[in-house]
MarR family winged helix-turn-helix transcriptional regulator
Amino acid sequence: MTDQYSLVATERAARAHMEQLDPALDFESAQAVASIYRAANAVRAHVTNEVLRPVDLSWTGFVVLWVVWIWDGLETRHAAEAAAISKGTLTGVVKTLESRGLLTKQQRQDDRRLVDLRLTPAGIDLMKELFPRFNAIESRVVSGLSERRKKDLTASLRTIVTDIEDLKDKQP
């Protein structure tokens, strides 16, 4: 990436535009949230290139497999919510994962309108193969942080998530 579009150059340009709009705008908050986005996108691109693309799996496909894996199955609306995707997006992802033999859909006996997702043995094997590689990248991308800074970062990000969850809970 050229210096013109580096992190520092982008922050300078954003500050200049924000100050033109209103000097009282909260640049520090905007910078913090932008940094969350940049970090998340950088990690996502890196993991996709290193771990997922070689097995022809999208980020969203992996996330759906992961949430179904950790919960030992999920009803579709909960899978969509846990993966932070729409039910429409989930439908397409499930179709792809099902066609690859990684996931199955089962109609619930207690309510025939609901559908549970479960990993197949091949899906479980894939997660057991991929997750250690995924986790190795997680370790590598935070290796420049001390254990204390990792804990502080985690606590800060958890606070942001729980604050947003609390806001959602208070909406009518």
Summary: Residues 1-55 form one domain. The two ends are 45 Å apart (CA to CA). The mean pLDDT is 92.
